[in-house]
Amino acid sequence: MRILLVDDNNTNLKLLTKLVAKLDQCEAVPFAGPDAVLSALPDLDFDVAIIDYQMPVYNGVELYTEIVRFEKYANVPVIFITADTDMTTRMAALNAGAIDFLTKPVNPVEFQARVQNIVSLSRARKQLADQAEWLRREVDRAVAELRQREQEIIHRLTLAAEYKDPHTSRHTSRVAAYSEAIAVELGLPEEMCNDIRLAAPMHDVGKAAMPDTLLLKQGRLTEAEYRQMQAHAQIGGSILAQSQSSLLQLASEIAVSHHERWDGQGYPNRLAGEAIPIAGRIVCIADNFDALTTERPYKSAWSFDRTVEHIRGRAGSQFDPQCVAAFERALPKIYEIMQKDREEQALSAVAAASGF
């Protein structure tokens, strides 16, 4: 333990230094005046402070008040040494944060007893702080491991859904990236933006329950088939519901709400406005953008500009106007994501044609 000693009397300082040397595993850090101490801050390290009260320029209380302006010293125990028995002096020291007093002339036996007690207290406090830090690290590690397992569950469920439709994989990854970009521009907290990116790929997990004849049909669905397909939103929410995982709860929320409309004409629950979860409102735009800008069995891909105008024109009816505004701010990032995906697909096609 390092013990700061401050006394402008050289004889007293030498005595205090010798007394500290006799304490168990303690090292004296002596200073002959307040100015020298202040000049050494905040690089000075000590665990206990013993400060003479009556000194020139700064008295002990004034010096300690300057020391504790630095957060690292806020919990350091301080002992004041004073020849003054006046209660006003002692109250000033206590109000400044004094934990004990030593009276001049210092009695070596009393010094050892009092300071050893303070040193033991400081050691116990430090050990407690170390344990708290260890516990914090362990909690952080456990939370990180739990989140990693949650992400793996979502990834595995997404893979299962992709077996029915080979185009689903790239669609879900693009929707996730678009959704995160919109969430960022909407000003949502960083952690929530990240969670939306992780949960968004599950938005169509309910399609795993759809028959292949419906899911893989070439051409437009009939009215009856379309109504049957609509069930995937409720089914997806049900698959993921009741989980203890906050990430899977968010994925369930997205799955069941990403086909709702701002004007209440969506499905499955005909929610309207802010009754639709914000993550569902965001993924709704991302999903529509991707569906329109990619080729489907029943349609050609729309251009980027045509799709943007389509979404912009439905702000306030199909889409949340604030989410549309965030989507527009995110367009440079969205365009970059779209182009990168197309380049990767082109490279994959070339590699496949070459037999690699």
TrEMBL record:
It holds the Pfam family Response_reg. SMART domains: HDc (SM00471), REC (SM00448). The keyword Phosphoprotein applies. Keywords: Coiled coil, Phosphoprotein. It comes from the Bacteria. GO terms for biological process: phosphorelay signal transduction system. Residues 146-343 form the HD-GYP domain. Residues 118-152 form a coiled coil. One of its GO terms (molecular function) is phosphoric diester hydrolase activity. Gene3D superfamilies: 3.40.50.2300, Hypothetical protein af1432 (1.10.3210.10). Residues 2-119 form the Response regulatory domain. Residues 168-292 form the HD domain. InterPro entries: CheY-like_superfamily, Cyclic_di-GMP/3'3'-cGAMP_PDE, HD/PDEase_dom, HD_domain, HD_GYP_dom, Sig_transdc_resp-reg_receiver. The modification 4-aspartylphosphate is found at residue 52. PANTHER family: CYCLIC DI-GMP PHOSPHODIESTERASE TM_0186 (PTHR45228:SF1), CYCLIC DI-GMP PHOSPHODIESTERASE TM_0186-RELATED (PTHR45228). This is Response regulator. It comes from Ciceribacter ferrooxidans.
